[in-house]
Amino acid sequence: MLKKILSISGKPGLFKLVSYGKNMIIVEGLNDSKRFPAYAHDKIISLGDIAIYTYDEEIALSAVMQTIYDKNEGKAIDAKNYKDKASLFSFFEEVLPDFDQERVYPNDIKKVIAWYNLLVGAGFTSFKEETAETEEQAEVAAEQ
Question: E strand or H helix at 109, and its extent?
Answer without folding.
Answer: helix 106-121
